[in-house]
Each structure stands twice: as C-alpha cells, then as structure tokens.
Design a protein that fits this description.
Layout (H helix, E strand, L loop, with lengths): L10 E4 L3 H12 L4 E4 L5 H18 L5 H10 E3 L11 E4 L5 H12 L7 E4 L6 H5 L8 E6 L8 E6 L5 H13 L3 E6 L6 H4 L1 H12 L5 H10 L7 H8 L1 H14 L10 H9 L35 E3 L3 H12 L5 E3 L7 E3 L2 E5 L5 H8 L4 E4 L10 E6 L5 H13 L3 E4 L8 H17 L5 H11 L6 H8 L1 H15 L8 H9 L6
Parallel strand pairs: 1-2, 1-4, 2-3, 4-5, 5-6, 7-8, 9-10, 12-13, 14-15
Antiparallel strand pairs: 6-7, 9-11, 11-12, 13-14
The structure holds 1,4-dihydronicotinamide adenine dinucleotide.
C-alpha cells in the first residue's frame, strides 16, 4: 500500500477561485499547512477569509471538533510569489482552464520546487498528457480532479497522463483517501470518467425533447420519480449553465473525432444563441425570472379503478405491481408470461419497453393494444411512470392500462411513442458509455460506478444498474435503438456484448 503524503507536508494551491478554495479547505482540515496563491491581488486572502467562515460554520454545527477547526484555520497561509512554494510537497493548480496557462505555471514551478514535489492539476477537460509535455519531469504530474463543491463532493479522479509515474498516481490516490475522499484512477482520455459517462444523461434527454417525446418538466419528473435521479436533466443543465454544459459536450465530441455518441444538440445551441444560459441568466429551459411560474409535469387525469386486471409473470415490474395492488386491496389474477408482458387489462397488453416503439412492437407481436411502460429504478417505490401507446391502440385499452398503473398509486405521464422511453434509454446509454470506458482501459468497472454515484449522485452505478436489469435486456434495448434510428450513436459496447455471452456481471 502506498502511503499518503504525511500531514506535516506542505500543500500549495494555486488559483483560489471556487475550486481552489474548496480544495484548500479539504487539505487544511486534513491537517496540512496550505499555501494559497492567486494572480489576482487580494484573491488568496479573500479565499482564506471565506474558507475560515466555512470551517467555523462546520464547527458551530458540530461537524468539526473546535480544536480541529482552529488548527485548520491556522493552517491557511496566503503567499504572493511562486518562489515561496519551494518547500511544497504537492502543488495543486486550479487556475483558468487553459493549456498554455497551466503549462506555463508548472514549467516555472519546476525551477522552484524540489524534484520529488508532485504536481496535481484540477483540470476538467485538458489532457494531462498535454500539460505534462511542457515539463522536464512530466512523470511528477497527474490530474487531481475534484468536484464542485470540493469540501462536499466525495469523489476525486486521479488522472494519469502518458508520462505519469504510477507511484505519483498511487500517492495522490492515498492522499485523497486520507483526506476523506473516494479516489478513482482514470487514464487521461476526453472527459476522464464522469464528464464522459454522464454525457448520455443530457444527450438522450435533449433527443427526447427534440423528438417531442414530452416537455422538459415531464421528462425531469420521470427521471426523478421513476429513475431515482436527484435532478432531472433539464433542471440540471439549467443549474450547470448551458455555456458550461454545451462546452463540455463539444469538447468531448471534438476530442473523440465527432463520435455521434456525443453529438451536441441544436436545442441547447439555440438556448446559448439566445443568451438563455440557465438559472444564472434567469432563463434556460425553465424561466427563473420574478413572477414566472414553474411548469408542472404532464399527468394523466385519474381514471376509475379497472376490473379484470391480470398480472403476468414474475419480472420486477410485475411483482411490484402485484405488491402495490395488494396493498391497495385491488383484486387481480395472475398468469404466466410467455412474451414478456407484465399485465393485461381490458384488451390492453402492457410491456416494459425494450427499445422498440410501441407501434413497432404492436406490429411485431400482433397485439394492436400494446402499451409500453418505462424502466423504474424500483417499481415498488416509483411515484410516477411514463407510458407510450401504439398508434394502433384503441383509446379504451390505453385508458384501462393507465387506470391499472394509477390504481397502484403512481402518477402516469403519457409520452409520444419514441423508442426506449426516457429512463430505459438513458440508463442503457449510460451503461454503454461506462462499459466502453472500461473496455478502453480508462478505468475499472468499480471506478466507473463509484465515480457516477459520487461525482454526479446517480442512484446506482450504471454498470451495476445494467447488471440488475439484465445485460441481455440492455443489449436488446441498444440494438433496437440502433435499428430504429440507424445511427452509430447506439452501437453496443464490445464489453456488454462479451458479458452477455459469458453471463458474467459487468460490475463483477
Ligand atoms: P475560477 O474562475 O473560480 O477560479 C480560477 C482562479 O484562478 C481565479 O481566482 C483566478 O484569478 C486564478 N488564476 C487564473 N490564472 C492564474 C494564474 N496563471 N496564476 C494564478 N492564479 C490564476 O475557476 P474554477 O471554477 O475554480 O476552476 C478552476 C479550475 O478547476 C479549472 O481548470 C476548471 O476547469 C477546473 N474545475 C472546475 C470545476 C467547477 O465546477 N467550477 C469542477 C472541476 C474542475
């Protein structure tokens, strides 16, 4: 086991904006002397005042022992010159996101610090390999990628460039762990882990919107209430800011030579062109100006509880419907399911989506009254489900299917008949991206899942989620999306293909 940097080693943080200040707080609370430097006069002192206020607040709330808080506050030192950092064991930069600025800073530092001083860059999008290319000793540089706000977010990506010494990455991993973070190793590829694997969360939602599947508020509600995500994709993009979110998408897309998996959206570009940057500008997908009202998700009117319900098979969805109907004291019959259906009522046949449109599925299976239900993280706990009905489906059958779901206590949002609905399509694509990152040696399966749970608060790691749904089902969804759209965007990761055949879980 590699040892972390000992608490008596000095940490330098250069660039004391949002990220640098947060990182300095983490290191100071961990017991290090932290030297803060910024090229804007007074910025380091300002950051120290803000950090001390934060630390004192934590102590007042009982989240930090008073002695530890006092020590952390005393650990923060503002410096004016790079030459004052000669004794640092680790220099973390969180300056402007510019290759030239980062290369220039570290090249200058090389003449000041000792040979064994480690450089950790907090860049979120620049190649660590490229930053290292300007150094005499590029082996000492690795990415040390914190998430915002650094004191709160548990994840740190330790990013190795081509020249990074594995011992340096191991020391940073151990140090981040000693600071109370969950560290994951990643190779320096575009977006590292989180900013790459998260792209489908935005990308698929933007596609759904473009195709008129539902409005933003409804898609958000489904992703929260059925998918278990903390925020819907549209409110999240509004919070991040469309300038930032669009720039990250473009940078990953460009870096992967315009791979259609990462293609930016014209809908988001329109917002950008209009200056609707999200919450910070008062308008994005939603309107945040004074007096504006928050749109409510489309919700089907409550129907009368239907009679003649039959639940089919023992899939998680069918079992959860059975439990919920039993709880509500609503009678139903049980039967086997030979074709994957989960329920039938008044001529309607309900299936969980497999990536085909309801219309195609109705045509394929010969049941005109086909109704598709979206994936839920946990069908027992979901408070809302999305459905789509085949074009051939009779109104009474659609009504009965919706009434059945409502009888289980969920709200129902009716989507246009797009392939894969919202949660299923998004989760399949997140798992596909995570699998591809693993397949390309960017990170381990465990790292990919931990990164997504801790870096962006997903309720489950995408690979563990895919395992729990069943890899053959995920492969089928992706294959059907691929056939429906005829786009390379939905090509299936070779890792998923292999694991379907080997019957081994991805998250192993
Ligand atoms: P920020 O704009 O809040 O802070 C940057 C600070 O660096 C400013 O105080 C600026 O005066 C200072 N600075 C700029 N050039 C400098 C130089 N050559 N020498 C010394 N100080 C300099 O930016 P933020 O958001 O803290 O980002 C910093 C870095 O962290 C960027 O590389 C960014 O991509 C990365 N990052 C940002 C995240 C975020 O959510 N904001 C998340 C993870 C990484």
């Amino acid at each position: 086991m590699t040892a972390p940097l000992p608490p008596q080693s000095v940490i330098a943080v250069i660039g004391t904006g949002a990220m640098g200040a947060g990182i300095a707080q983490v290191a100071a609370v961990a017991g290090h002397t932290v030297q803060l430097m910024d090229n804007r006069p007074g910025a380091a002192e300002e950051a120290i005042r803000a950090i001390r206020a934060q630390i004192t607040k934590l102590a007042d709330k009982g989240k930090l022992k008073p002695e530890r808080a006092a020590q952390a506050n005393a650990n923060l030192v503002a410096v004016q010159q790079l030459s004052e950092l000669a004794g640092a064991s680790l220099v973390i930069e969180a300056i402007v996101e510019s290759l030239q600025a980062k290369q220039g800073l570290y090249a200058e530092l090389e003449g000041i610090v000792g040979d064994d001083c480690i450089f950790g860059t907090n860049t979120s999008s620049i190649s660590v390999t490229a930053i290292g290319a300007a150094l005499k000793r590029p082996q000492r540089l690795a990415g040390l990628h914190f998430f915002n706000p650094a004191p709160v977010m548990a994840l740190v990506e330790i990013v190795s460039g081509l020249a990074t010494d594995p011992a340096v990455a191991a020391t940073l991993f151990a140090t981040a762990t000693a600071w109370g973070k969950t560290a994951v190793h990643a190779k320096s590829t575009p977006g590292f882990i989180v900013n790459r694997v998260a792209r489908p969360y935005y990308g698929e939602a933007l596609r759904l919107l473009t195709e008129g599947a539902a409005d933003c508020a409804t898609i958000d509600a489904i992703m929260r209430e059925a998918g278990g995500f903390r925020m819907g994709p549209f409110e999240l993009m509004d919070m991040i800011g469309h300038d930032v979110n669009y720039a990250v998408t473009c940078s990953v897309w460009n870096a992967f030579y315009n791979d259609p998996r990462f293609m930016p959206s014209l809908v988001q570009k329109e917002l950008l062109d209009a200056g609707f940057l999200g919450k910070k500008s008062g308008r994005g997908f939603f309107d945040y100006r004074e007096g504006a009202s928050k749109p409510t998700p489309q919700t089907e009117a409550t129907r009368e509880v239907p009679t003649g319900i039959t639940l089919c098979g023992e899939s998680p969805a069918a079992q959860a419907l059975a439990e919920r109907l039993t709880q509500a004291a609503i009678p139903f019959d049980n039967t086997l399911s030979v074709d994957g259906r989960i329920a039938q009522v008044k001529g309607a046949v309900l299936f969980v989506t497999d990536g085909r449109s309801a219309t195609q599925r109705a045509s394929d299976n010969g049941f005109a009254n086909t109704v598709l239900v979206d994936l839920a993280l946990d069908y027992r706990a979901a408070t809302r489900l999305a459905v789509a009905t085949a074009a051939q489906c009779a109104d009474e059958a659609a009504d009965a299917a919706i009434a059945l779901l409502q009888a289980t206590g969920v709200q129902v949002s009716r989507f246009a008949d797009i392939p894969g609905l919202a949660v299923m399509r998004t989760v399949a694509m997140l798992a596909n991206e995570a699998a591809d990152a693993v397949n390309q040696g960017v990170c381990s399966a465990q790292a990919a899942d931990a990164a997504m749970r801790l870096g962006v608060n997903y309720p489950l790691g995408p690979l563990a989620w895919a395992d729990s749904i069943g890899l053959p089902a995920i492969r089928t969804v992706l294959a059907n999306l691929g056939t429906s759209y005829g786009e390379d965007r939905y090509r299936i990761s070779p890792l998923i293909q292999r694991h379907v055949f080997s019957k081994r879980p991805l998250h192993g």
